[in-house]
Amino acid sequence: MKYWIDGNDVGCQHLHQYYVGSFVHEELVLGSTMPRVEKLDVYVFPQSGGDTVCIRYGDEGHQYYSPGSLIQFIQTASLPGHTMYKDALQLIRTKGKIRYEQSI
After folding, report:
1. Above 90 in pLDDT, residue 86?
2. Residue 59 and residue 99: Cα distance in Å, rounded?
3. What residue ranges do the domains of the chain occupy?
């Protein structure tokens, strides 16, 4: 179930064809006893430098996380403390496939 509207913002202008899926992420914020809950939509779309990941957390143009290319995203998701990126990567791996294409 998608949480946010596609293609309505000036920032990313996501198209439905690049929508991967949605998930809810809960994370305990330092100094708080209540977890922060975010509803997130994940998109993977082509760009000249390779496939790019974008994670929406609202309908406004500025409400997204932009972890960069798919390769950068995978590297960041492997670092400690990046549980939201790990969850998004698992969704991408479940809904699609990650492939290597050699540049010529």
Report:
1. yes
2. 30
3. 16-95
